[in-house]
Predict the structure of Surfactin synthase thioesterase subunit.
Amino acid sequence: MRAGPSRLELREGGPFRLLCLPYAGGSAGSFTRLAQQVKEDWTVVAVQPPTAGEHDKGPNLSELADFYADLLAADLTEPGIILGHGVGAAVAHRMAQRHAANWPPGLRLVLSAPPRPGPPACHLLGLDDQSLLSVARSHGIVPDSELPDELATRLLLPELRQDLAVLGPAGWSPEPVRPPVHLLGGRDDAAVPPALLAELADQLGARGTRWVRGNHLFVLEQPEETFAALRKIAQCDPPGPTATLRTLTGVAQTGDQNTAAGARVRP
């Protein structure tokens, strides 16, 4: 069970900051293995979601985005990356929408295995515990473990339900935003398969999509490959004013020219 909210510095380094927003059921500690793989002089910071007791109904997407923006106020500088995984990607995207006016040009937005657009989370929240646990395990949205069902239900599902509820009845809408957007996906992700991520790249006007071996929780299970992808993204030049305007109007941009094998870049 997690305790929150908090800002956790996982690695002390230079001015380049990797800011991590957790997936449904995750925590700041979910990015510990990723921080251990960082070979560059980066500072790695992760946020801990508020606990259910601090919000009677739990925060909605906009409230959580503002909450994280306040928690990370001193960290929202350039150069850097905001990495949101799963539901955290939707929260990071909402942060970019609501705080566009003050967004540093060199702060890249990486949406990692973002949720399906629309309200599918409501369907999941309507399932009983056993059904939700079964779906979560089959889609890889909870970590692999040998916990018996009763213990897994008690330890994993309350936070999973709380975080899925953040998306609300309308779910998440992948609209273009001012910051440069990059997508990150798992090759074997059953929750966010490659075809869906390709559609999201088009809708968001993403500069590029990079792939990591593994299922939905590749940031947890494949930290070395995840960092390699993030390092490539960090080496991309941020867009100039013209490219930013094209992002806002949904027109395709010229993306990463020296892309690692396996990456998908928009023409």
